[in-house]
Automatic annotation (TrEMBL):
Organism in which the protein naturally occurs: Glutamicibacter nicotianae
Name under which the protein is recorded: Putative N-acetylmannosamine-6-phosphate 2-epimerase
Keyword Isomerase: yes
Stretch forming the signal peptide: none
Function: Converts N-acetylmannosamine-6-phosphate (ManNAc-6-P) to N-acetylglucosamine-6-phosphate (GlcNAc-6-P).
Pathway(s) annotated for this protein in UniProt: Amino-sugar metabolism; N-acetylneuraminate degradation; D-fructose 6-phosphate from N-acetylneuraminate: step 3/5
Catalytic activity: an N-acyl-D-glucosamine 6-phosphate = an N-acyl-D-mannosamine 6-phosphate
Domain of life where this protein originates: Bacteria
Family indicated by similarity: Belongs to the NanE family.
Key words, A-Z: Carbohydrate metabolism, Isomerase
Gene: nanE
Record's keyword annotation contains Ion transport: no
Coiled coil: none
Amino acid sequence: MLLSKEQLEALRGQLVVSAQAYPGEPMRHPQTMAQMAASAVIGGAAAIRVQGLADIQFTRSAVEVPVIGLFKDGHEGVFITPTVHHALAVAQSGAHIVALDGTRRERPDGKSLAQTIKAVHELSGALVMADCGSLDDALAAAEAGADLVGTTLAGYTGERPKTDGPDLELLEQIAAAGLECPLVAEGRIHTPAQARLALEAGAFAVVVGTAITHPATITSWFSDALGGGS
Ligand SMILES: CC(=O)N[C@H](C=O)[C@@H](O)[C@H](O)[C@H](O)COP(=O)(O)O
């Protein structure tokens, strides 16, 4: 699926909503995630990020906005769209943008990030969002040809502390590097004020997941505030 430069540019300053349910959870169903995505669009989401091939297909049918797709395989090491095979499957499922691990770690198929991005570009025409965990990741991913870099993995790879909210310091660092490609803030953005701060730190667009689309976690925030019900 092709996304024009104008369509990508239209995401500047906008909210992207990530709709994901995790293995074993009651809401883990492609139609449920597509309905969640459509609801987010009504609220102002300019794009949707969604996990899993069926979820990508259902979400494409449910919304008009660009879809960022990913394919999680496992939950340790390189697990976000880890190989060329996964990346092409995401593109074939209809994602306009393929989100994939954009770290400097070795990939399970032995391909470099640059080779992976090239394969997506040449074989599908989709754009690539590199999910990074540090400034060095972002610099390398931009060099490798990523169309967007995200801070998705900051706090999850050992290179950055897991901040309570968004890693604003990292956003500022990457923004100061003046990359050619857009910088997407993602990870632990839990309030509208934090989303605003992420933009002010230099993000091109802001992805919010849990705080909008994961009721179990949102409920626990309230429940914990009341003493956990115990
Ligand atoms: C680290 C990892 O696996 N992140 C995943 C990437 O797609 C999702 O589990 C997150 O929900 C997403 O990045 C949005 O972040 P948050 O839910 O914190 O707003």
